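User: Working on a comparison across species. This one is AraC family transcriptional regulator from Vibrio barjaei. Can you predict its structure so I can line it up against the others?
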Amino acid sequence: MKDKINLVTLPKGHPCQVVDCRMESEEVFLEPHRHDYFEIIWCLDNSGSQRIDFVDYQSVQGRFFTIAPGQVHESNSLGSNVKMLIFSTDFFENRYRHQLMFDAIFSAHQNQHPYIDTQGRGATQLDAVFDLLLEEYQREDTDWDLIESLLTCFLRYLVRFSVDKTEAITVRDERISQVIALIETHYQSERNVAFYADKLSITSKRLNELSKAHLGKTITKLLHDRVLLEANRELVFSTKTVKAIALQLGFEDPAYFGRFYRTNMGESPAEFRRRISK
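Assistant: Here's the predicted structure for AraC family transcriptional regulator from Vibrio barjaei:
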């Protein structure tokens, strides 16, 4: 294991990459690594698998793995029959409808699987848009504004043809997206619901009502889940001591962290590390 999970970045000047693994040999990161970009892996058959936040997922034809910045990703077997779209976090204009679309597709911290199944629906439209993306990407004078427009089109088709997320792009309260972003920024230092409610200018009770209605969880549960996810990442992919991880996550008392972890996970941090590392 390593002291730090590798952070993988896009090449400078290339805010987006379009890859057809059937046409070229693409080097695959076999070691655990953390993205600072969004990645979509489109499975064209049932070969290969992905490990995302130390959970293994099998490739299924018509499945789109959706990996968000910050997630830990490992390709034990990517398979050669896939297409990939990779793009930076600031590639799109910061517009509310774009945020809704991203919430529907990339749900790293919302208790959903990191993939979308289409069961083959929309293959004609998605294929056509992907081919246009690949053609433009391979040009010497790539038009990145056109790439952004085509990628938006691809993502919106993906939401339309997904099996279980077709309504997510229109029904979510804007404040849910905002609180998820706030949790991602502050979960290590702020675990009081009132902090997040104040940021959104609503009461703690109302914020919890919104969270339970849209995500099925209270704000406290969302915070605990995010802390545990980061703890598990560090326990699996680093050699940091449990004490060091506890301090990193904002626990002044490592013993309290141990009790918190056992209460939520049913085992101690050390037991989890030994079990998952075998």
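For your comparison, note: The chain is about 45% helix and 15% strand.

User: Helpful, thanks.
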